Amino acid sequence: MEKAVRFGVSLDSKLLTEFDALIGKKGYTNRSEAIRDLIRDRLVHEQWQQDDTPVAGAVIMVFDHHSMDLPRRLTELQHDHHDLIVSTVHVHLDHDNCLEVLVLKGAAGEVRQLGEKLISTRGIKHGKMTLTTTGKGLT
Ligand code: NI
User: Fold this and answer.
1) Which of 33, 82, 101, 127 has the highest local Cβ count within 10 Å?
2) Ligand 1 centroid vs 84 CA: distance in angstroms?
3) Model pTM greater than 0.90?
């Protein structure tokens, strides 16, 4: 493990009060862990911007499986990019609605593009993509 370094930060007292209230609500027991998470989140966000960086992510979509030829188009798109899709979960929410979660892994640019393509497919009621890190190089 890398050696921990202490450093001081000056900031407006009102800002610090707001920060403490926020992290208290989120369940952090100390500022250091909250600040470490903020820094890691910013670093991970930076990785997504670099097209060649390996990232992991998830896409979640809700759709009506009766919707035109949507299930067929989604399956086709997923087969076209099978190398980026690690796992798929399909849940039949009710008679009409399906929820699908795709776990993606690959180069940030390709993962982002596939996620956007899936979510913007006509007939998807709601879609979200969350990108994260593969964990490598992040302490
Ligand atoms: Ni279904």
Assistant:
1) 127
2) 22
3) no
